[in-house]
User: What shape does this take?
Amino acid sequence: MPELKRIGVLTGGGDSPGINAAIRAIVRRAEPAGLDVVGFRDGWRGPVEDDLVPLGRAEVTGILHIGGTVLGTSRTNPFEKDRATGEWRATPKVERILDTLRRRRVDALVAIGGDDTLGVAHRLAAYGVNAVGIPQTIDNDIAGTDYAIGFHSALAVVTDALDRLHTTAHAHHRVLIVEVMGRDAGWIAILGGLAGGADVILAPEEPFSIREVADALRQRLEAGRRFSIIVVAEGARPVELGGRQVAQEGRVDAFGHPQLGGVGYWLAAELEKEGLPLTPRVTVLSYLQRGGVATPFDRLLATRFGVAAVEFALAGRYDAMTALRGPDVVAVPLAEVLAGCPKPVGPEFLALARNIGVR
Ligand code: F6P
Assistant: This one.
């Protein structure tokens, strides 16, 4: 195995607070190991276009808590899906990545991102690229790890928003519908809804009908509760739409994901037809869930993952991801991770919501 001398770091996909804490930990762990670190800008675009910056202690001072990523991100994908076979195939961007890594003498990559970013790292292993993945996405839909960086910071935003919305819903006797992110998984909706005291939580894992939502609101009214908070995941699946998600027409990203959004307003319009003595109003939290300052949990998780990524590289543990399993950080093969993505919310959390009377 060639000696490890230089590590390249990149941050791809949807951002979140915590990424910079991981970048800082990588640099601070690499230094005593005598490793040089460079940062590629904007996810996989950086290696494709040979766009990189040096990453030393000076560049990572004071970034532990700052949201976003000092390297920038993108949804650049050097692979494209073969329409006939559905398989990912290399575009000329792959050769440009290999050329950059050779010329810049980058011996290993640390790729920080969600399943799209990590999927590229895994596919590049077949071309001889040594990469370690760090799971990062507010969606928390990455298999193999209890949590991904960013999820807890998003939970903090959702919980604070629900606390604020409770006071105005109560004052005005209203139904407030809160649309949250999470793509095809309900981690933000269910755990954020539970933490924020939502009365109804609608997640992609369990298709819902307008009738059952209206019945839940009627039951609350009959019990004298003249307001309700509904949390609906952007990827929720209404039975009335045949389980189809509400998306922005024609907008698909480089990994084939439709741009989700709008289910909150659809739900409000449908509830208006139910003749309830309640006025539904909608709040879409959108990119607020991706911004702000990292929570202590995310700062610690990111620091642990950053250190582990360097140590996995030093040990030659490539094509693997840093993962939290209970109290431990372990290495999980990327093939195993990707086979389980997107990770749905576990039955224990779905049951928890039921057990405390949340629809
Ligand atoms: O994957 C993170 C995420 O915020 C999803 O929850 C959301 O559906 C998507 O990114 C939005 O993508 P973009 O930032 O490209 O609009």
In short: Residues 151-172 form the longest helix (22 residues). The chain has two domains: 6-149+293-339, 152-289. The chain has a mean pLDDT of 96. The chain is about 35% helix and 20% strand.
